[in-house]
Amino acid sequence: MDNSQIQQKIKKTIERIEERLKAPFRFMEVCGTHTVSIFRSGLKFLFPHLLEHISGPGCPVCVTHPKDIAMGMELAENQDIVLAIFGDMMRVPDSSGVTLKDLRAKGANIVICYSPLDSLKLAIDKKNKEIVFWGIGFETTVPTVGATIVQAKKMGIKNFSVLSHHKIIPPALKFLVEYGEVEINGFLLPGHVSTIIGMSPYEFLAKDHKIPSVIAGFEPMDIVYALDMLTSMYICNSPKILNCYERAVKPDGNKKAQAVISEVFKISDAYWRGIGKIEASGLEIRDTYQEFDAKKRFGLTPKDVGDPKGCRCGEVLQGKISPKDCPLFGKKCTPISPVGPCMVSTEGSCAAYYKYGV
To answer: Which percentage of the chain shows pLDDT scores above 90?
Structure first.
């Protein structure tokens, strides 16, 4: 199918959705890659006026809580430690507006890596330094971190540890539908996360809350097809969990990846930006691998800190407000000089609204 045929199919599918909707239908996507795709492809501008799109807590950088940011900053200020991070974390401000980029300019040992295995290699090369990999993100990235910890133990590496601020998606969705302040008529479920966890962890959305939800890929046609199915289920009052990304997502997910996660990590409570503590929504390193737990190794505890002054990213992440409703948007807060993480990350809603002129 060539581009013109794809465009025509997208157009017809959107027209079918428009004809079907007689009342507003609000769907939430909870994957930063979906956020970017919807804006970059122009779909946001093609949606019928009754089809309301809101972004949820699907950007790993965006949902990292100020308490967790403070822990990372504490490690970065220790001259005996090399803090290895993913690039997006470099410009995330703490509660006072200071970033890791600022600390590195003052001499902090901070390196950007593209894989946790890069940080393990760093530990092998720099035996006189403590190397800490700051692990953020969802189920998608956790298996590689777990495999790195397993490898470190097999190799007997003594100067490597992980600051685990990993989170899992289903408990956050449960919080949003049970305690959130925004009505959600359907979920566009994250494709990457679902390759790991499969379909069953989402069943509660349809069974307990009657909310149709669809796992979708990231091409424009993937997204439009999923929205077609979402609105159809909603109109027919037949909520289900459907998989429209079968080329990548299996019903049971990736069993090997799940086994690695289960071996190295245990379920814990976690803090989410704008929400606070969500029970059983995080992953901590098990006692059997505790020598690689940076929190225990360096005696780290959560500090009572809040968002940067004026930042409303937390409300954006819950769908309470649009990025443009934040008084800092496009003024004090821009991608060049971000105040909040939703403007830092390329997967953040605020950055997408700003870049694509919504």
So the answer is: 91
Residues in the chain: 358
Note the pLDDT tens digit of each residue in 76-134.
Answer: 999 999 999 999 899 999 988 999 999 999 999 999 999 999 999 999 999 999 999 99
Residue 308 placed within a domain: no
The answer on 220 and 90 residing in a single domain is no
d(Cα 12, Cα 9) in Å, to the nearest integer? 5
Question: Distances from the Cα of 263 to the Cαs of 57, 146, 204, 257, 349, in angstroms?
Answer: 26, 8, 25, 10, 34
282, pLDDT greater than 80: yes
What's the CA gap between 263 and 286, in Å, rounded?
Answer: 8
Which residues on neighbouring strands pair with residue 270, listed in sequence order?
Answer: 278
Q: How many CB atoms lie within 10 A of CB 7?
A: 12
pLDDT, position 4: 85
Same domain assignment for residues 332 and 319? yes
**Three-point CA angle 230, 234, 235, nearest 5°:** 120
Q: Rounded mean pLDDT of 301-317? A: 89
Do 235 and 338 share a domain, yes or no?
A: no
Q: How many domains does the chain have?
A: 3
Cα separations in angstroms, 214 against 222, 242, 356: 10, 5, 26
Query: Is the CB of residue 118 less than 8 Å from the CB of residue 145?
Result: no
Phi, psi of 276 (to 5 degrees): 100, -150
What the block records as the tokens of 281 is 């929504």
